[in-house]
Structure formats: structure tokens, C-alpha cells
Predict the structure.
Amino acid sequence: MIAGTSAAVDLGPVGALDGRDMVRMAPDGWPPLLVYRIDGEIYATSDTCTHATASLSEGELEGHTIVCPVHWAEFDVRTGRPLCFPATRPLETFAVTVEDGRIHVHRKSNGNGGDER
Ligand code: FES
């Protein structure tokens, strides 16, 4: 467990991201997650757009920005911050650690992703 987090889930080997820059995962008891590898760093957010529940896994990743495939809202995957209309609510983000080559995603203990907005 890392400071400022509560529950964690093992999402399997880092190799799941080989050849891809993002992958959707749906562990039991968690919201659908979108896990990204960008410049060697791994990030995790909710997969569900906060505007109208589209799956962001069907969108485009541009640098650290995920673009929703439905109405083109953009979010910073590092913080969940919405970058443009029509999204106004942040995307939930999760802390990520890699242990023994496996991705562990941790719920931030304030319950809404935990970034300071
Ligand atoms: S559903 Fe994502 S911007 Fe509307």
C-alpha cells in the first residue's frame, strides 16, 4: 500500500501494454479502468467519460491527453483534469505501482481520484 491510498488491485503483467499505449481493464469490484503507458510511465484512470459515459478506450491518446470518441472532450490522464468542453467534471485517477513486473492500481483515499483540483 502506498501513502494516501486504500484498496489496490493487481492488473497483471506490464507486458499487457506491449505494443499498445493504453488498455481497458475491468477488475471485479472496480470501475472499468483505462491503463496507459506514456514515455515509460504507467497511469490509470476511469475508462468512463464524465460527460456522457462513453468508453475512453475507444478514443485517441495524444501525449498525456485522452480524447473522448463521442463529443471530443479531452482529459489529462495524469490528473484527470478536463481540458475542454463538454466535460466539466474530472476523470477519476488512480495511483499506479509496478511490483515484480505486475501493474498494481490503488484507489486514492479521498475517493474521487485524489488529485488536487
Ligand atoms: S461522452 Fe465523452 S465528451 Fe461526451
Remarks:
- Residues 5 and 46 are 16 Å apart (CA to CA).
- Confidence is low (pLDDT under 50) at residues 112-117.
- The domain at 5-108 is CATH 2.102.10.10 (Rieske Iron-sulfur Protein).
